[in-house]
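Final report, Chapter 2: Outcomes

The project's central promise was a pipeline that accepts a single protein chain and returns its three-dimensional structure in a standardized token representation, suitable for archiving and comparison. That pipeline is now operational. To close this chapter, we reproduce one record exactly as it appears in the project archive, with the input sequence first and the structure output second.
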Amino acid sequence: MLLAYYILSALFITASILPFISHQHWMFRVWEFGRIQVLILQLITLGLGILFVEDKSILFWGTVLLHTGLIINHVIILIPYTIVYKKKIPGNIPKQSKTISIISVNVYQFNDRYEELIRLVREVKPDILLTMESNQAWEDALTEIEGEYPNFKKVALENTYGIHFYTKLLVKSIKVNYFIADDLPSIEASLQTEKGTAFTFFGVHPPPPSPTEEDNSRERDGELLSIGKKVRDTKGPVIVVGDFNNVAWAKSSILFRKTSELIDPRIGRGFVSTFHARYRLFRFPIDLFFHSTDIFIEDFKTLRNIGSDHLPLFCKFFINHFEEVQEEQVEILEEGEEEEVEEMIEDGIEEESDRPEVATE
């Protein structure tokens, strides 16, 4: 038992310490994703050690102290993304627009259960559908919904970074942006509701740091922060949604939130974890959503599995330009962070990726 305790302690303490290191290699950044699971495993390890380890030496109590400090750090980081966190969620706000709904989903390029998504869309009837990892096969399948979603933008790629946007709303303009690399598209759409209320939609999907994809987070972070700057310069209500390949509590996500001056609806509502769809115990939130202060969330949740490794993310909201009750939730960049953001954007632009044009499963 003693040996098992020390082996587990070494593993989970290391996993908790690595995110403190400001290095963009995946080996340091990947542990941010599993923070919930590491916290639970540390609590179990600590509890078992206290209960069953008989030789409680100075080394043992040293590991207990380390576990306790790191557990407290995990809790401080994660608690805002739980319902325990006391956040004033506005109620009885008058609607200036009709209620607008969005489904955002990474379909998993090699998933051929196209009808699962089509059935879900026809059941939920969102005003906007954003798909990521959608290639030509997905584009062909989704022509079936184009009668219901006559306004769209299609970027079919075979490198797992295809992106498709469909909407019932009036479109003033749609364009595809390439902030960091010419094979990483994002969507920017200027939309208008039936009542004539305008807002801007951004759909994003930067690459993850992982041993099987990018060996660091430079492109991901540079892409997100470039979009953050673009959002800050955009007038009117704004929504940013997509597979961020990043958890909400990661440093680059927080810098994105501060740069864009948007609100994370997960704060005070819960994790709303989307990945991995098949493994509930190993699930964490990487499909993110941010909004400006004049957008009010009515519903925010995941939907049923469509055969992808991501669950679809659903949001329902309305717009009110005059209520200022959400202003206090906005965070801005602190001293020195603006320079850090610019440096991360430059690093992303300079990073040379070796993504294949056609990905294989």
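Archive annotation: The longest strand covers residues 170-177.
This record, like all others produced under the grant, will remain available to the consortium after the project formally closes.
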